[in-house]
Design a protein that fits this description.
Blueprint (H helix, E strand, L loop, with lengths): L2 H24 L9 E5 L2 E8 L2 E5 L7 H9 L34 E2 L7 E2 L23 E10 L7 H16 L6 E7 L2 E7 L12 H12 L14 E2 L2 E2 L2 E10 L15 H44 L1
Antiparallel strand pairs: 1-2, 2-3, 4-5, 6-8, 6-11, 7-8, 9-10
The structure holds 2-acetamido-2-deoxy-beta-D-glucopyranose (NAG) (3 copies).
Pfam families: EPCAM-Trop-2_C, Thyroglobulin_1
Keywords: Disulfide bond, Membrane, Signal, Transmembrane, Transmembrane helix
Organism: Pelobates cultripes (Western spadefoot toad)
Length: 312
């Protein structure tokens, strides 16, 4: 008889613990592995350590790239995650960005230094660098993001099925409305995904294509931002199609303003073309010089002869 009340108390305690755990599980951040959430009535309120502060975030959709980059560039509390070796196509890689309160990149970025430059809405540098007085009049929108992936097996899969699987992954996993996936194309093992979303098309609530690119790049590199219980998969008939080597290209509504002499590794293809053009130019120059040289020599000879004739 004396055991029963104790037992009841124990059972009640156990029950409480289980319920609170269940509640904790109900309220977690679906879009950041380090998101810290607490149930508040029916709402789930989440925060993320970004820089030195805990920043409130909306965990129902991808977290803005500016916040993610800031978090990553800061060794702060969360610890510094190891970076995969594959570099971004955006020339500068990581910097510590200045974000607006809503997670949009500020047009001018200085990486906490005296050197500043202008970025697009994807946070990628689009001008030369200058000093603290460098002016950026507007944040130019990246309206087109190309995601290039490479398939990591050669299983033959009908194109239409693979296209649908990729589109489903993008709409379900990153919450991007399907209308912004304008094309998916294959070329051997390469997959090209075009995401287009211009200023007039995007409503404030729509996920930004630049954020989708960032999440996808991390997923394919095996360094996901989304919690591991929701793995990245491209499922065709229930079977994952493995992909690797993500490359992201950004195209802005206005042409970038980076002068040639400052171009770095990311635009190596352009430089190669320029070098080829210069070599071709030199070859042409040398050839024409040679011909000209012959004429000049001939002329000199004639002149000499004329001189001789004159003096004789
Ligand atoms: C930003 O600053 C960090 C630390 O000073 C540096 O390692 C990084 O290269 C800088 N990035 C750019 C794009 O200047
Ligand atoms: C934005 O895209 C829509 C649909 O593709 C197009 O009709 C519209 O002209 C575009 N607006 C701008 C400003 O480019
Ligand atoms: C590609 O596939 C090979 C063989 O299955 C595997 O060992 C490798 O880890 C894969 N690479 C990537 C980046 O997934």
């Amino acid at each position: 008889m004396t055991i029963s009340p104790l037992f009841r108390l124990g059972a009640a305690l156990l029950c409480c613990i289980l319920i609170s755990q269940a509640l904790g599980q109900d309220c977690s951040c679906n879009f950041h592995v380090k998101g810290d959430c607490q149930a508040n009535g029916n709402a789930c309120v989440c925060k993320l350590p970004i820089g030195p502060d805990l920043t409130p975030i909306d965990c129902t959709k991808p977290i803005p790239k500016c916040f993610l980059m800031k978090r990553e560039s800061n060794p702060g509390k969360g610890g510094r995650r190891p970076k995969p070796e594959n570099a971004l196509v955006d020339n500068d890689g990581l910097y510590n960005p200045d974000c607006e309160g809503n997670g949009i990149f500020k047009a001018r970025q200085c990486n906490n230094t005296e050197t500043c430059w202008c970025v697009n809405s994807a946070g990628v540098r689009r001008t030369d660098k200058g000093d603290k007085n460098w002016k950026c009049t507007e944040l130019v929108r990246t309206f087109w993001v190309i995601v290039q992936l490479t398939r990591n097996n050669t299983d033959s899969i009908p194109e239409a099925d693979l296209k649908k699987a990729i589109a489903d992954t993008i709409t379900n996993r990153y919450k991007l409305p399907a209308k912004f996936i304008t094309n998916i194309e294959f070329e051997g093992p390469l997959i090209y995904i075009d995401l287009k979303q211009n200023t007039t098309e995007k409503t404030p609530n729509d996920v930004d294509i630049a954020d989708v690119g960032y999440y996808m790049e991390k997923d394919v590199k095996g360094d996901p931002i989304i919690p591991l219980d929701n793995p990245f998969q491209i499922l065709v008939n229930g079977k994952n199609v493995p992909v690797k080597e993500p490359l992201i290209y950004y195209i802005d509504e206005k042409p970038h303003e980076i002068s040639m002499k400052r171009l770095t590794a990311g635009v190596i293809a352009v430089i190669v073309v320029v070098v080829v053009a210069i070599v071709a130019g030199i070859v042409v120059l040398v050839l024409t010089r040679r011909k000209k040289g012959r004429y000049e020599k001939a002329e000199v000879k004639e002149m000499n002869e004329m001189q001789k004739q004159l003096t004789s």
